[in-house]
Design a protein that fits this description.
Strand content: 5-15%
Strand order of the largest sheet: 1-9-8-5-2-3-4
Structural class: alpha/beta
Helix content: 40-55%
Number of strands: 9
Order of helices and strands: HHHHEHEHEHEHHEHHEEHHEHEH
CATH architecture of the largest domain: 3-Layer(aba) Sandwich
Number of domains: 2
């Protein structure tokens, strides 16, 4: 009798768990009643013939976040779930996650520094209005370009300011000048100086990381000569606020850096919340370099990128 019960319970379990038969279908197939099938399935679990593993994606995401915090000595890591390992899909989900994180984080009298680009614009589009007082929003780097490529610089700052009920502070300049001398003249302007100083004072900075690949946004904007592009591609790993760094997070070219308008990378290390929003296989090297440079203490990414950063 025990062997027969064992045989029936295993067959019932196979039909139920592997072939997706209903209990009524199994009863008809085995020539027993439906309550008997239920008892057979319970018996199969009690005897260890069936092992059920429940995978909670949120628990897995929490584990990834914990491991990233430990490996890169970060204060906070937010890992979101992306159903596809594609750049556009990942961008959609990390931007939503960042917008939600900011809505929970921003408080009265915070100064929020923001950059631009497609990722930052996506974050801005997902922001929900929050009733706060005395918040300021400032652009962390220049954004004017004569290129046909849209940087979404003004739109991004505007949307941030609208969400937090304040007035946007722009840096109405090219992000990179052709010469250091011209950049120095601009630095002497009192209005520009106040905006740059406000960016330094920001306690929250929200930014993404760029790459040094052929399709990098700053390369397409036409700010660099072919020789400069080759220099950055050979030495660089990525950029934050249009300042390029190598795999260790060190500035690649002091000459180009001195022509760049906006916050210095070293200032990001002093922020209460320095939030890096980035994901996708093409950005893994740049994210690693940014974290090596200690430019962020908060990371928002997806599970695919998190796994790549760990391994």
């Amino acid at each position: 009798m025990d062997k027969e019960k064992q045989r029936l319970s295993i067959e019932a379990a196979r039909l139920y768990y592997q072939s997706d038969y209903s209990q009524q279908d199994i009863a008809s197939r085995l020539g027993v009643s439906r309550p008997t099938v239920s008892r057979l399935l319970q018996y199969a679990k009690e005897q260890g013939y069936v092992r059920i593993d429940i995978v909670d994606p949120h628990e897995d995401l929490n584990a990834l976040a914990r491991d990233l915090r430990t490996k890169y000595a970060l204060d906070t890591v937010e890992v979101c779930y992306s159903p596809l390992n594609t750049y556009e899909e990942i961008k959609k989900h990390i931007s939503k996650k960042t917008a939600s994180f900011l809505n929970e984080t921003v408080q009265d009298k915070d100064i929020i520094g923001v950059t631009w680009g497609t990722t930052m614009h996506a974050v801005a589009l997902h922001l929900q209005p929050k009733h706060v007082k005395g918040v300021e929003v400032v652009q962390l780097k220049g954004g004017v370009s004569h290129s046909h490529v849209n940087t979404y610089a003004a739109e991004t700052v505007n949307l941030f300011a609208e969400a937090f009920q304040t007035v946007p502070r722009y840096l109405p300049l090219p992000v990179v000048f052709d010469s250091i001398a011209m950049k120095q003249i601009v630095d002497e302007d009192r209005h520009i100086g106040r905006i740059v100083e406000l960016g330094k004072q920001a306690n929250i900075a929200v930014f993404t990381v760029g790459t040094v690949k052929e399709d990098a946004l700053l390369f397409r904007l036409g700010y660099f000569s072919e020789a400069e592009q080759e220099q950055l591609k050979s030495k660089g790993a990525g950029d934050i606020c249009s300042r390029f760094f190598d795999k260790e997070g060190h500035i690649c070219s002091e000459e180009i850096n001195n022509r760049t308008v906006g916050i210095q990378l070293s200032d990001l290390r002093n922020k209460e919340k320095s939030i890096l929003v980035a994901g996708g296989q093409r950005k893994v090297e740049a994210i690693q370099a940014a974290l090596a440079g200690k430019y962020a203490n908060i990371l928002v990414t997806d599970q695919f990128t998190a796994q790549a950063l760990l391994h």
